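Subject: Sanity check before I submit

Could someone independently write out the structure tokens for this chain? I want to compare against mine line by line before I put it in a report. The sequence has 330 residues.
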Amino acid sequence: MEFKAMVETEKWLTDAIPDGMQRKEVAYSVSTDDSVHSFLPLLLEHLDPEPKNVQAPSRQTTMLILPNLFQDYAAFDSFVKDVQSVRSSARTYQHPTALTAMQAEVTRTLADDPVPQMQTSVNLALLHPDFEVPEPDEGDSPELKAYKTKKGLSRRSPYPTLVIETRTRVVELLSKEEEEQMAATSGDSPEGGPQPPAPAPAAEISNLEHLFSLPSTPTPSDPAAAASAALLSPSKKLRLHFPALPVHICPGSTPHSAFLTFFTSTAQPPFVVGYPSFLPSSPLSFERYGRDLQKLCDLAQLGWEVVAEHPEGVGEGKAPVPCVRVEQRG
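---
Independent answer below. Compare away.
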């Protein structure tokens, strides 16, 4: 099945390229998974935004063919949109790796002879045998309407397919003149004056006020007991906090490692996954991570309920280590 899917997709792609146009190189990968749950780890591997020993700008396009999944176009389109929504949310997490990268970027910017910095982006698009071609706009010329229709039809592939483009480039530093021009355009120059910040939502202000009224760690009533607890491993702390549940630990500190650890676990609810190095001091980001995990679990139709708990969280759920508790609904 895998070979057949690759051969048919390669032939379709070759035939779709107009004469005289050069085709860029693509890599093929076929997933024979027949459930979204079993497919998610493979997808997460392909969407890893961290460059792996990349020393020069590069671009790689992978066609991930799914012959046993998403026969319905609308379901496939909805799945991709939800995955993109989770990816967008994950980019806002205030995790240590992101903060370290920001600090490194500031240092690099201020250096007299900055070292080139590589940045990797991963783009995701879909192809499908029943790809719905959008109706052209009424104001489009006949030529533009024909172009849009042909472009839409060209996305009707033999099998449901994800096109994953991984691009690594050198991050260019702005010159002093470019920085001054950007400041003037944004209204942050002395001549334009600073722009007032947008008001924060009331609910966010309430959460932050409550958050900053709490100590980063609870004040121990018994110093000896606190010293003893500090020697416990994250796994041991969670096992004491959830004595009846199996505990798994994510060793990574990035959103990608957090999602991948969760979906590569073979555990069945109820269970707990601890994240001692992921968002340890960012309870609001960890709360969003819990909501994003729930969205992916719902996409996989697992029927799981995900509850995020954090030592510095707002609310009743305060585990000793950032974690998610997973239970079966119903």
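---
OP: Matches mine. For the report I'm noting this point. The radius of gyration is 24 Å.
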